[in-house]
């Protein structure tokens, strides 16, 4: 099995390598791939030194799987070139997510849609992944009717330059400008670009991707996405209305028994999910479970996950594992 990590020098690419190592994902050959300006750089991985290669060279090596974390335009240009040599591309950008020809996958939720001839597979947006993972088992039992979600997103979701902006603002230097405003001691209700309908692209990703992954266009979603001076995890306040009524203890039990979810919900002891605790972990943490007393069949929950792990790298590596374990790589 020849594995390529495309965007190996970036924030998500580096996390992909960590996850590959931690999960013991097996390969025979590994290619570290990045843009021209990183070609020739040396990267150390599992005690071995790798020289970063360019995309052209990587295509010529015909990897079986390439995990792309290199942005939308690189993916639009290069994923089809890898596809043409038979590579399975697992793509972290938004380039292919809503294409009707391509699968959008969270393995625990809809891994069963994957087939042997899938060649470009889209990894969903980070804030969508943690939300659908927490909602899917409840959707199965009570059927989700409408979701109202507000996000509290970490600067790592924007990338290294945003982490630099936050850290330099904290040391008194306000010259680094990734966001249109200061991020330290602030909250920006603005993630990705604004669209004609007044929502941001991030908010519309949560609307559209949720319907596609849960395979249900009737689900109504409305989102407000907010960037906070937080490192290492996205949090979400989710208000979900179901078709059927639920029992709160049963909800806890369903979530506790669902793959990839950890329930942290013991308010008497101040136990609830927080980004600081989620950082570096692969699971999605759920807490503050309580009935919305203002309308029937409605639940409030607080959902936290490391956006670079389950929101990006871990989910992508899990897709690769799913393909390998189910003999979908040839
Ligand atoms: C963010 N959703 O947090 C993006 C990253 N994919 O900005």
From TrEMBL:
Keywords: Amino-acid biosynthesis, Diaminopimelate biosynthesis, Lysine biosynthesis, Methionine biosynthesis, NADP, Oxidoreductase, Threonine biosynthesis. NADP(+) binds at residues 9-12, 37-38, 307. Transmembrane segments: none annotated. GO terms for biological process: 'de novo' L-methionine biosynthetic process; diaminopimelate biosynthetic process; isoleucine biosynthetic process; lysine biosynthetic process via diaminopimelate; threonine biosynthetic process. It catalyses: L-aspartate 4-semialdehyde + phosphate + NADP(+) = 4-phospho-L-aspartate + NADPH + H(+). Its EC number is 1.2.1.11. The active site is at residues 126, 234. Pfam families: Semialdhyde_dh, Semialdhyde_dhC. Pathway: Amino-acid biosynthesis; L-methionine biosynthesis via de novo pathway; L-homoserine from L-aspartate: step 2/3; Amino-acid biosynthesis; L-threonine biosynthesis; L-threonine from L-aspartate: step 2/5; Amino-acid biosynthesis; L-lysine biosynthesis via DAP pathway; (S)-tetrahydrodipicolinate from L-aspartate: step 2/4. CDD domains: ASADH_C_bac_euk_like (cd18131), VcASADH2_like_N (cd02316). Homodimer. PANTHER family: ASPARTATE-SEMIALDEHYDE DEHYDROGENASE (PTHR46278:SF2), DEHYDROGENASE, PUTATIVE-RELATED (PTHR46278). NCBIfam families: asd_B (TIGR01296), PRK14874.1 (NF011456). Catalyzes the NADPH-dependent formation of L-aspartate-semialdehyde (L-ASA) by the reductive dephosphorylation of L-aspartyl-4-phosphate. This is Aspartate-semialdehyde dehydrogenase. The lineage of its organism: Bacteria, Pseudomonadati, Bacteroidota, Cytophagia, Cytophagales. The gene is asd.
């Amino acid at each position: 099995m020849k594995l390529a990590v495309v965007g190996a020098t970036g924030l998500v690419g580096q996390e992909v390598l960590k996850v590959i190592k931690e999960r013991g994902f097996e390969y025979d050959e590994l290619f570290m791939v990045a843009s021209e300006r990183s070609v020739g750089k040396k990267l150390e991985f599992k005690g071995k030194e790798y020289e970063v290669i360019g995309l052209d060279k990587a295509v010529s090596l015909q990897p079986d799987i390439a995990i792309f974390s290199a942005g939308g335009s690189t993916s639009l240009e290069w994923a089809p070139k890898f596809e043409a040599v038979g590579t399975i591309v697992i793509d972290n950008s938004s380039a292919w997510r809503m294409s009707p020809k391509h699968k959008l996958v969270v393995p625990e939720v809809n891994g069963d849609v994957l087939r042997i001839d899938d060649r470009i597979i889209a990894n969903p947006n980070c804030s969508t992944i943690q939300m659908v993972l927490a909602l899917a088992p409840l959707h199965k039992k009570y059927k989700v009717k409408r979701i109202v979600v507000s996000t509290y997103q970490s600067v790592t979701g924007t990338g290294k330059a945003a982490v630099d902006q936050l850290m330099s603002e904290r040391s008194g230097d306000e010259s680094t400008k990734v966001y249109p405003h200061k991020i330290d001691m602030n909250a920006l209700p603005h993630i990705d670009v604004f669209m004609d309908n007044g929502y941001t692209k991030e908010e519309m990703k949560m609307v559209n991707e949720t319907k596609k992954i849960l395979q249900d266009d009737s689900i109504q979603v409305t989102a407000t996405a907010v960037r906070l001076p937080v490192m290492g995890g996205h949090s979400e306040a989710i208000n979900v209305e179901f078709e059927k009524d639920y029992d709160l203890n049963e909800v806890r039990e369903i979530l506790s028994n669902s793959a990839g979810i950890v329930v942290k919900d013991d308010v008497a002891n101040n136990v609830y999910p927080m980004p600081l605790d989620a950082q570096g972990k692969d699971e999605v943490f759920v807490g503050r479970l309580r009935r919305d007393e203002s309308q029937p069949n409605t639940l409030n929950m607080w959902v936290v996950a490391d956006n670079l792990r389950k929101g990006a790298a871990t989910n992508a590596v899990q897709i690769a594992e799913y393909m390998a374990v189910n003999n979908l790589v040839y």
